Amino acid sequence: MNAYGERLAAVVAQRGRLCVGVDPHLSILQQWGLPLDASGLERCAMTLVEAVADQVAVLKPQSAFFEVFGSAGIAVLEKVLGAIREAGALSLLDVKRGDIGSTMAAYAQAYLGEGPLAADAITISPYLGFGSLQPAIDLAVANGRGVYVLVRTSNPEGHEVQTARHHDLTVAQQVLEAGAAINRDHARIEDGVPGPVGAVVGLTHQALDIDLSRFAGSLLVPGLGAQGGTPEHVATLFGDQTPLTLPSTSRDIAEAGPDPAAIRRRTAEVAAALR
Amino acid sequence: MNAYGERLAAVVAQRGRLCVGVDPHLSILQQWGLPLDASGLERCAMTLVEAVADQVAVLKPQSAFFEVFGSAGIAVLEKVLGAIREAGALSLLDVKRGDIGSTMAAYAQAYLGEGPLAADAITISPYLGFGSLQPAIDLAVANGRGVYVLVRTSNPEGHEVQTARHHDLTVAQQVLEAGAAINRDHARIEDGVPGPVGAVVGLTHQALDIDLSRFAGSLLVPGLGAQGGTPEHVATLFGDQTPLTLPSTSRDIAEAGPDPAAIRRRTAEVAAALR
C-alpha cells in the first residue's frame, strides 16, 4: 500500500480537506427518533457514512460512541470502517490509545493491522511518553497508515499537561519535535505529501503556543462548527505552514440529519466555506 | 452499591492485595497451544479468570488484547468481566481512556455504567488535563466504582511528560493533587478505606519522585514479576503511606498455565510473598 501521506494528499486533492466526524452520540440517536441501542447506533452511523463518504476525504468515527454498546457496538464500528473504505474515503478512527510495550503493539495490531477494526489512521495519546508510541508508528509506516498524536487539544484543561515544561520545551512542542524527526524521513513537503505522524491541535485557541514550522505531518483540527471554530480561524491559526490541515466537524453535520440529502447539503456547505 | 473504596477494602481484607492481570497476549495463546483467534482468546482468558477469580481481590483485564480481535474479542471481554463479578473479585479494566466532554462521558458510560462492559474500575489517561476526566469520576462516584489515573508509569519514556513542570509541580504531582482533592470527600483513611480516584504508579523506579502522602486513593502498581519488580521493592517504594497498594502481575501467572492448578499455585506463591 502507498504511504499514508501519499494517499491522504491524493484524496484531499480530489475531495477537499474537510474531515467529518462520525459521532453517533445518544442525543443524536434521540433527535433522529432512533432506538437507543446498537440497531439505532447502526442506523445513525451508517446513514452518516453512506451520505458523505463519497464526498469528503476523511471520516473520523469516534470509538467511544460505539464502545458504549459493547461488542454489538464494535460490530457496528467494523461495518462503518468497511463502508468508509468502499466509498474511497480514508478512515481516521478516534481512539486516543496509549500504552507501553506489548500492549501498545496490540493496539497497533488492532487498528493499524489487517483485523476487523483496521483503519487508515488512528489518534494516539502520549501521556506515557512519545517513545511508548513507537510500536504504532512502526506498524503505521510498514502498512501505509497514519497516526495522529494528541498535541494541543481544544479543551480548557489541556494546558495543565500540554504546556508543562521538560527542559526547555513544552510537552506539546516536545511531542511535535519527536514526530518531526520521524516525518523528516517520509514527507515530501514540496509535493504536499506529509509524513505518517500527524498531530491533533484544537481550533479553540486564540493563538498557537506551538511551533509547527518543522513538523511535516498533517494536522487533525477538531472544533469546526459546534465547538465554535470557523473556517476563517483555521486560516488564521494554521495559514500555509503545514502541508495538510484537516479541520473536523461532526455535530453540525449530524444535526442536519436524518435525511441523507440534508446531510450531504450541509457537508457541502461546510466544505465550500473551507476552500 | 457501596462506594468503591469500601468494596475494595473489604475484598482485600479477605483475599490480600494482589492484582492479577488478564493479558491474553498472542504469545501466551501460542505457548498454551491455542488457536490465534477469538476462540483461543476466550480459552486463555477464561482459564485465567476461572483459575484465580475466587482467590485474589482484583483482576485486571487488558483491553488491547481483546480489541485485537474486534467485536469477537470484545464479546470475550464481556464474558470475562461477568465471570470476575460472579467469583466475587473486583474487575479493574485496563483501558487507559481519556477524552473530553461528551466523548469522555460516553467512555464513562461504557465502562462505569450498566452496559455489557461494566467494570468495577478502569484506568484513565490525563493527557487532556485532569479536569477532562470529570465525567468518569462523577459516574464512578455515583455508581460505586473507581478510576485509576495514569500518574507515574514504569516505562523509561514516561518522565518526558510526567515530570514536566507546570508552575511548581510536575505533571504527575499535579494529577495526584487533583485526585487527592476528590478523595478527601470520600476516603476514610483511619479505617483503611481509599477514595474513588486511584493512581497508576510503576514499580520499576528506584525511588519515587512523587509525594503520595495526601493522596488517599489506592495505587495500582504494575511491574511485579516479569518486569523485574519484587515484593521487597513494593515495600521499599510504598511503605505504609497509602491505604491500599495493589501490586499487579500478569505474565508470570499466565506462563504457569494452561493447567489451572498450576496457575492457582503460582498465584498463591506470588500473593504469599506480598504479605
From TrEMBL, chains A, B:
<keyword id="KW-0456">Lyase</keyword>
<dbReference type="GO" id="GO:0009220">
    <property type="term" value="P:pyrimidine ribonucleotide biosynthetic process"/>
</dbReference>
<comment type="pathway">
    <text>Pyrimidine metabolism; UMP biosynthesis via de novo pathway; UMP from orotate: step 2/2.</text>
</comment>
<comment type="similarity">
    <text>Belongs to the OMP decarboxylase family. Type 2 subfamily.</text>
</comment>
<keyword id="KW-0210">Decarboxylase</keyword>
<dbReference type="Pfam" id="PF00215">
    <property type="entry name" value="OMPdecase"/>
</dbReference>
<dbReference type="GO" id="GO:0004590">
    <property type="term" value="F:orotidine-5'-phosphate decarboxylase activity"/>
</dbReference>
<feature type="domain" description="Orotidine 5'-phosphate decarboxylase">
    <location>
        <begin position="17"/>
        <end position="266"/>
    </location>
</feature>
<dbReference type="InterPro" id="IPR013785">
    <property type="entry name" value="Aldolase_TIM"/>
</dbReference>
<dbReference type="InterPro" id="IPR011995">
    <property type="entry name" value="OMPdecase_type-2"/>
</dbReference>
<dbReference type="GO" id="GO:0006207">
    <property type="term" value="P:'de novo' pyrimidine nucleobase biosynthetic process"/>
</dbReference>
<protein>
    <recommendedName>
        <fullName>Orotidine-5'-phosphate decarboxylase</fullName>
        <ecNumber>4.1.1.23</ecNumber>
    </recommendedName>
</protein>
<keyword id="KW-0665">Pyrimidine biosynthesis</keyword>
<dbReference type="InterPro" id="IPR011060">
    <property type="entry name" value="RibuloseP-bd_barrel"/>
</dbReference>
<dbReference type="InterPro" id="IPR001754">
    <property type="entry name" value="OMPdeCOase_dom"/>
</dbReference>
